[in-house]
Amino acid sequence: MDLFFESLPSTSQSSPENGHEDSQMTEDTDHDSSRGTSLSVSMTEIQEQHTSSSIDDVSRRVQELVEKINDSRTSDQRVMDSFQEKLVEKVKEICQQMKEHMYTVYEENSNEMQVKLQELTEVLENCTKLNNELLEANQALASLREGLAISQTSDP
Fold first, then answer.
1. Cα–Cα distance, 55 to 49 (Å, whole number)
2. Contacts of 15 (CB under 8 A, 6+ apart)
3. In this structure, how many other beta carbons lie within 10 angstroms of the beta carbon of residue 24?
């Protein structure tokens, strides 16, 4: 609005000379065109600021997403580490249980083998006694046979 009133000649002043009026009009026109240029530069600056603001906003959002992804990865790593620790602990526990069970089975087998070995020892002792008795009986029979053979040869 100021531009419109500045370009109009004032009624309270005397009219300027022709040369002065032309130079005033040129100045006003230059002033108007510089304002237009200034206005278009301002609009460009506003658009650039808006674009820059949009870029900054997108950049900030991307940075936030990257941080969220990194936080998620860190969390995932903690979960995996915890899982691994629990798994290793569970495997150790199961191995220990298996060892204990294995030793229990060994002990049961050892006890059974001890009983069987004791029975075998008793059977072998009985076999030895029977063998000795058979040898004695064989010797007795051999002595009887000799005695009979001698008595038969001496009796005619």
1. 10
2. 9, 21
3. 14
Closest C-alpha to 28, from 9, 46, 14: 9
Alpha helices in the chain (DSSP H): 2-7, 18-154
Rg over CA atoms, the chain: 62
Assess whether pLDDT exceeds 50 at residue 12.
Answer: no
Local confidence band at 121 (pLDDT 50, 70, 90 cut-offs):
very high
Per the listing, tokens 């050892």 go with: 110
Both tokens assigned to 148: 């009979």
| The amino acid at 72 | S
Q: What is the residue-averaged pLDDT of the chain?
A: 80
DSSP state of 35: H
C-beta atoms surrounding 46 within 10 Å: 10
Report for 31-35, 42-46, 147-151: range of highest mean pLDDT: 147-151
**Dihedral sign, Cα of residue 109, residue 110, residue 111, residue 114:** positive
Question: What pTM, to 2 d.p., does this model score?
Answer: 0.44
